[in-house]
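hey all, quick one before standup. I had two proteins in the batch that finished overnight and I want to keep them in one place so we stop losing track of which output belongs to which input. First protein below, input sequence then structure tokens straight from the run.
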Amino acid sequence: MKVRVHHVHLFASDLDASIEFYRRWFGGEVLADENFAGARNVMMQIGDGRINFYDQAPRDHGRNAIHHIGIQTDDLPGLVAEMTAGGIEFRKPITGSPGVGYVMAEAPDGVLLELFQADGDKLTGGAKEWFAW
């Protein structure tokens, strides 16, 4: 039996703004834009992961039951520089431990993002597999 995380499902108070945010900063590609359960649903692929947006405002602002979405990159300083130039604010500078750097930012509807870069050559044990491309 195979098991995997297929998608993260997020409410969106402004669906088009959410689509544009993830498309612009992370190269998201819309796989489907359909009406399910009485509302517009958009499935977006980012790398080998997916986000399913539901065209309905969150029941509460921010995280609700989701703490954050982790987005891995191979050029964290470059991504942070581009996003900063584009008006995205970061809570703190890039931080981390040997082999892993990360920074937190807010996406539409107060969704917390963890942007990170991992260097497999500096990691050992399970961490090496955890962050492998």
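OK second protein, same deal, sequence then tokens:
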Amino acid sequence: MNAMKWLRLAVFLTLCMTVAFGCAKKQVETAPMEQPAAAQQAPAAEQPAAAQSGSDLASSELTQKLNQAKAEITGGRIFFDFDKFDLKPEARDVLKAKAALLKQFGDIRVLIEGHCDERGTQEYNLALGERRARASYEFLVLLGVPASQLEMVSYGEEYPLDPGHDEAAWAKNRRDEFKIIK
């Protein structure tokens, strides 16, 4: 029994430390990644092939692949049915592609944004948006993406994709979006 108390105490202290030191505000990346100094002088196409060293080419290719991965991760949205937060088969396919990239590029961190249509109270929509973001988060973790690469936020009905007031607009607004975190 004494060992169980120590285990509970250790888990409690770990959770307290995580909350105390792991909840800093994160900023969403809005500017493209900086190019290496060699690439800023002249585009790679303008530099003679003999002048580029092997490490510059490798760095340039890696930067290009990283930027492409970021674009693919942020590009696909997940859509939901009215008052639902379960993932449709097409949403699971989109998340599988994102998971493969996130596992390949472990330095990429993603903010999962949950959104709702305008129907329902603000409180209800914030809670539903959180459930939608959590559904994507949990599926990505099940696919092997480290939880440390993921964060969630619910915007409820605050940022509609389509400002209309009909079913077509509402269907676009019931979604998860993915943003890169700095």
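Flagging for whoever picks this up: The chain has six helices and four strands. The radius of gyration is 21 Å.
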